[in-house]
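Researcher: Before we compare anything, I want clean individual predictions. No alignment, no superposition, just each chain on its own. First chain goes here; please echo the sequence and then give the structure tokens.
Model: Echoing the first chain and its structure:
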Amino acid sequence: MSSTKEADRIYRALADGVRRQTLRELPEGETVSISTHVEAIAAGGFSTGDGPTHETVQLSLYHTHLPLLCDAGLVEFDEDQKVVTMTTLGKTVHSEILQPSQELLENDDFEPVQ
């Protein structure tokens, strides 16, 4: 696989706030149950228009977000055990892209280019 295709998959996975939140919520080196992760995502403000419900969050994770994160190599999802784990690549993307971006946005001196 070319590095361009890999980069495209990663950036596609990061293009959605729920998927970025998923990477932020997963503890490094730990396997998390989907039910625990659904709670964290719902508490973090996931929106479907009418407000988050556990069912809408879980369906969205199962059918959209986790498959894209898995395809990008950022998480591993065990459907039988119903657990998700961040991969080494996911940890790198979190520490090298997501965390610095979040810190920049939280900086009081940051002014977006218009």
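Researcher: Okay. Second chain, same rules.
Model: Second chain and its structure:
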Amino acid sequence: MITKNGNKNMNSQEILMAYSEQTTTPPEAMREAVISMAIESWRFGRVFDRLLLKLDAGEQSRYKSQFRWFIKKVDEALEHAELRIVNVEGHPFDPGIAATPLNIEEFDAKDSLIVDQMLEPIIMGKEGLVKTGTVTLRKVEL
């Protein structure tokens, strides 16, 4: 049956199917959304860690537990999307590392360097690198 505005009458199942076809998100867009959320949770975690230092030990413990639960959920979502975060903080710097060093120009080629901070994490998938990270470096103190 055609209605006066030209649309055919649909039963509820047909309406749901038509709606889902219009709102289906492509898998690549969903993957990018998960990656974006993982990166933002990483950044939030850095801020949260600094905030915790301002609390007394009892409060720190409670909030750390809640945050660990949140990170566990983020890791589960990443695992479901076949992704994982790689943290290279404290590791020796190698020019082949999958991260962009923001302060590399501050050092000489002969300097022995380590990754001081990760500003954005490295994201790996089952096929390899998905997103490079961003880091700052520091000289190894001998």
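Researcher: What stands out in the second chain?
Model: Confidence is low (pLDDT under 50) at residues 1-5. Additionally, The longest strand covers residues 113-120.
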